[in-house]
Amino acid sequence: MHYGGKIIAGLIIFLGLVSLPFWFNLGSAAYKQPKVELPKNEKNCVESKEYMRTSHMKLLDQWRDWALRDGKRTYINHNGKEFTISLQNTCMKCHVSKEKFCDKCHNDAGVSPYCWDCHVPPKEAK
Ligand code: HEC
Ligand code: HEC
Ligand code: HEC
Fold first, then answer.
1. CB 96 within 8 A of CB 39
2. Is the C-beta atom of 72 inside 6 A of ligand 3?
3. pLDDT tens digits, residue range 6-52?
4. Atom of ligand 3 nearest to the CA of 61
5. How far apart are CA 28 and CA 24, in angstroms?
6. Binding site membership of 90 for ligand 3 (Cβ less than 6 Å)
């Protein structure tokens, strides 16, 4: 019993040190996305920003399947607003720069969607 307190104190200090990196990381653990250029004349995306941020790839997949398999060319969002199903003519009409928008995040996240092998990105303003 005599040494018990010291051992416990030692353990607490040890655990505190071992978990230091964890505590330091708490503030920055959330993924910080790079600054992207957002459309100047538009306030809203096809769906909410949060949804787009995490799920735009799923939405694009759906769009492709609907357009190509089902011939469905109109998307109605959660507010009842209609959009033409098109990567080039809809997404890229608002997001006018692939480099300053899509690529910014993708380079950071280490993904390179192959879509642009076929789909034409907007001309970049130099
Ligand atoms: C009508 C214009 C418009 C269209 C069409 C549009 N967007 Fe957006 N998008 C915006 C705006 C404006 C924002 C910023 C929304 C906000 O700040 O709430 C945005 C945000 C986003 C974001 C989140 C960016 C961030 O900072 O987290 C992603 C990803 C995105 N759009 C992808 C797409 C894709 C993919 C499509 C096509 C399926 C698309 N957008 C179609 C206007 C548009
Ligand atoms: C806010 C940051 C952000 C923006 C802006 C953004 N993306 Fe992404 N995108 C990501 C991330 C992160 C992933 C990887 C997600 C994963 O692996 O789960 C991704 C993945 C994808 C994928 C799937 C690729 C794969 O290999 O899994 C497609 C397709 C895609 N994005 C298309 C687009 C298009 C088109 C635009 C521009 C209109 C765009 N994204 C803009 C962050 C973004
Ligand atoms: C091998 C070439 C090729 C690649 C790679 C490709 N697509 Fe397509 N995509 C097409 C063709 C062809 C169509 C049909 C165009 C039409 O009928 O309007 C199409 C249609 C689409 C459509 C619906 C209509 C439209 O005009 O946008 C979406 C959305 C789409 N693709 C998204 C994607 C996404 C997202 C990726 C990357 C993950 C991708 N595609 C990669 C060839 C390709």
1. yes
2. no
3. 777 776 666 666 665 555 555 445 567 899 999 999 999 999 999 99
4. 35
5. 8
6. no
Q: CA dihedral in degrees (66, 119, 38, 25; nearest 10)?
A: 90
Question: What's the rounded Cα separation, in Å, for the pair 105 and 53?
Answer: 10
Say which residue the tokens 């997404």 belong to. Answer: 91
Cα separation, 14 vs 102, in Å, equals 45
Q: How far apart are CA 84 and CA 75, in angstroms?
A: 6
Question: Residue 55: what residue type?
Answer: S
Kindly list the distances between the CA atom of residue 23 and the CA atoms of 9, 13, 28, in Å, as whole numbers in the listed order: 19, 14, 10
Q: Which residues contact 98 (CB under 8 A, 6 or more apart)?
A: 92, 116, 121, 122, 124
- For the chain, give the percent of residues with pLDDT over 90: 72
Q: 36 — phi, psi (to 5°)?
A: -115, 155
Q: Measuring from atom 34 of ligand 1, which residue has the nearest CA?
A: 91
